[in-house]
Specification:
9% of the residues lie in helices and 39% in strands. It is mostly beta strands. The chain has two domains: 8-52, no CATH class; 55-136, OB fold (Dihydrolipoamide Acetyltransferase, E2P) (Beta Barrel), CATH 2.40.50.
Length: 137
């Protein structure tokens, strides 16, 4: 694995490659997503990169009707909400991401425990292009 710092910038670079990468403590084996340079369990500093499968289950979610400016540009608003959830990946770590492929206007139909798979959304163009991690049933 290439030598990259364990930070948000590296995490975002891996997302552009459609890979979900986190850190694993070499001392105690604790996993972190997004990656961290210091273990949250034993405070060790020897970390290694680990790739996550991108599959898991929905742990919690919310339907959002007041969008931040960059989401409003995508058309999200009070009449067109979107869903954000906590996903427990098969490896045991939790990720917070958009949930696509569900009806945000009918949150009562979205079920905790639903199996999900990672989806990489390409947004923007040119130097502003970014990859956003999302999950879908």
């Amino acid at each position: 694995m290439e030598e990259k710092p364990f930070n948000d910038t590296s995490y975002e670079q891996f997302l552009k490659e459609w890979r979900i990468m986190g850190s694993k403590c070499k001392k105690c084996g604790t996993l972190a997503l997004p990656p961290r340079p210091i273990c949250i369990s034993c405070f060790g500093t020897e970390m290694e990169w680990v790739q996550f499968s991108g599959t898991g289950r929905l742990s919690a979610f919310t339907s959002i009707v007041v969008a931040p400016p960059y989401m409003a540009k995508e058309g999200f608003n009070r009449n067109n909400p979107y869903v954000v959830g906590v996903i427990e990946l098969d490896e045991g770590v939790k990720a917070v991401a958009r949930i696509v492929g569900v009806d945000a206007k009918r949150p009562e139909e979205i079920k905790v425990g639903t199996p999900l798979k990672a989806e990489f959304l390409e947004r923007g163009e040119g130097p502003d292009k970014r990859t956003v991690l999302a999950f879908k049933p």
